[in-house]
């Protein structure tokens, strides 16, 4: 949900310097000053993985939560919407296997799920478009569907505070969707514009489960996590945590959400936990064709820029100093940005959705360090 603020930064041109120890020390001093456990919106931990293709600068600073033990570079964190990259990869793998086509109507895979109510799923100007939405439109956020986390943000927060430990299912998510009339908060006819929505990725997650006859967690693990050896990554609340590293807590303002809330509602749009090393492994594997059989599949995933758009299929694209980066942001203040031509990698997490500082300054300094 937060990747838009990152796009603003990455469209500015700056002259960059070389990575040296003096610059690294200066960067570390800057990052350390951002930690503040006493603030109304505390930032108790920050993680970064920065690479110019040859040198890696990686660290975790701060504490698990306020007054707790220290984190390190291998500690984990909620990656939120970066999960969409994983969901998109599985969908495109299924396409390569001949099990779906991107122009297929998602209705043909999910019509048996009565709780989706396809005739009412997408109501726009008194017309129903739910049965017309395609897999590709969901991947690219071009379905026009509303979003339960944006269009009914305060309602969702209020509901969550009343059901802190609720274990959400996809059916629960769509029950909330309909009970709060998000189906009437659609934004346009399918494929006529762009609107970012987790609801579309919920439908993609259900499509994966229906086609494979396996839980989404098992698909992530068998198709991506285990083959790449991502030993600290898992689908939180849907499988056991395999990592021995503790998770840094995420906050909304002063609210320690990790301590208080079961965030299983993120599901296919944002439910994975990982660390900077595993995320680096993932994005490099993606562009090294370790997750696809065909180069053309990766080209489809990243075609947004050629179409004059900033969002492809589960990937955000952005330009910085005339160089193309691919990746995604996450609600808890996380960012992954990768330049596959020059092998520049930027992975950040501040675990705070409402930081008191301008997070674009952190991103800018991170980019400068590896450029």
Please render the helix and strand layout as text.
Blueprint: H1 3-10, H2 21-34, E1 45-51, E2 56-62, E3 77-78, H3 83-96, H4 107-110, H5 118-121, E4 123-124, E5 127-128, H6 135-139, H7 153-162, H8 170-179, H9 198-212, H10 216-225, E6 234-235, E7 251-252, E8 255-256, H11 257-260, H12 267-270, E9 272-274, H13 276-287, H14 295-301, E10 316-320, E11 323-330, E12 334-339, E13 344-349, H15 359-370
Antiparallel strand pairs: 1-2, 1-13, 3-9, 4-5, 6-9, 7-8, 10-11, 11-12, 12-13
Helix pairs in contact: 2-15, 3-9, 3-10
Describe the structure.
- The longest helix is centred in the middle third of the chain and has 15 residues, at 198-212.
- The chain starts with a helix and ends with a helix.
- The chain has helices at 3-10, 21-34, 83-96, 107-110, 118-121, 135-139, 153-162, 170-179, 198-212, 216-225, 257-260, 267-270, 276-287, 295-301, 359-370; strands at residues 45-51, 56-62, 77-78, 123-124, 127-128, 234-235, 251-252, 255-256, 272-274, 316-320, 323-330, 334-339, 344-349.
- The model is unreliable at 1-17 (pLDDT under 50).
- Helix 3 crosses helix 9 (198-212).
- The protein has a six-stranded antiparallel sheet with strand order 2-1-13-12-11-10, with helices on both faces. A three-stranded antiparallel sheet has the order 3-9-6. A two-stranded antiparallel sheet has the order 4-5.
- The chain has two domains: 3-78 and 246-370, DD-peptidase/beta-lactamase superfamily (Beta-lactamase, 3-Layer(aba) Sandwich); 85-212, DD-peptidase/beta-lactamase superfamily (Beta-lactamase, 3-Layer(aba) Sandwich).
- 36% of the residues lie in helices and 15% in strands.
- It is built from 15 helices and 13 strands.
- With 371 residues, it is α+β, with helices and mostly antiparallel strands.
- InterPro entries: AmpC-like (IPR050491), Beta-lactam-related (IPR001466), Beta-lactam/transpept-like (IPR012338).
- This is Beta-lactamase-related domain-containing protein.
- It holds the Pfam family Beta-lactamase.
- Residues 51-357 form the Beta-lactamase-related domain.
- It comes from Flammeovirga pacifica.
């Amino acid at each position: 949900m937060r990747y838009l603020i990152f796009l603003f930064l990455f469209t500015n041109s700056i002259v960059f310097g070389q990575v040296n120890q003096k610059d690294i020390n200066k960067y570390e001093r800057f990052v350390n000053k951002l930690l503040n456990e006493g603030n109304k919106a505390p930032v108790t931990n920050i993680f970064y993985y920065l690479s110019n293709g040859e040198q890696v600068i990686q660290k975790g600073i701060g504490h698990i939560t306020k007054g707790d033990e220290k984190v390190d570079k291998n500690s984990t964190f909620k990656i939120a919407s970066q999960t969409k990259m994983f969901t998109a990869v599985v969908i495109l793998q299924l396409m390569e296997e001949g099990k779906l086509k991107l122009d297929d109507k998602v209705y043909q895979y999910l019509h048996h799920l009565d709780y989706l109510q396809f005739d009412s799923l997408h109501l726009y100007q008194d017309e129903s478009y739910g049965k017309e939405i395609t897999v590709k439109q969901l991947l690219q956020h071009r379905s026009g569907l509303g979003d339960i986390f944006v269009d009914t943000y305060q309602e969702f927060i209020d509901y969550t505070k009343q059901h802190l430990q609720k274990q959400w299912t996809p059916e629960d998510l769509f029950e909330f969707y309909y009970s709060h009339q998000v189906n009437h908060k659609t934004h346009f006819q399918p494929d006529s514009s762009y609107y970012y929505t987790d609801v579309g990725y919920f439908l993609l997650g259900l499509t994966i489960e229906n086609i494979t006859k396996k839980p989404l967690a098992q698909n992530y693990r068998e198709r991506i996590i285990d083959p790449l050896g991502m030993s600290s990554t898992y689908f939180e609340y849907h499988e056991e945590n395999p990592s021995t590293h503790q998770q840094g807590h995420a906050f909304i303002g002063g609210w320690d959400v990790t301590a208080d809330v079961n965030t299983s509602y993120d599901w296919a749009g944002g439910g994975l936990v990982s660390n900077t090393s595993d995320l680096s492994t993932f994005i490099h594997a993606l562009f090294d064709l370790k997750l696809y059989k065909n180069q053309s599949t990766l080209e489809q995933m990243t075609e947004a820029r050629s179409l004059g758009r900033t969002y492809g299929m589960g990937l955000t694209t952005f330009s910085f100093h005339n160089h193309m980066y691919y990746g995604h942001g996450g609600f808890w203040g996380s960012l992954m940005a990768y330049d596959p031509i020059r092998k520049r990698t930027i992975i950040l997490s501040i675990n705070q959705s409402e930081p008191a500082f301008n997070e674009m300054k952190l991103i800018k300094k991170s980019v400068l360090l590896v450029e």
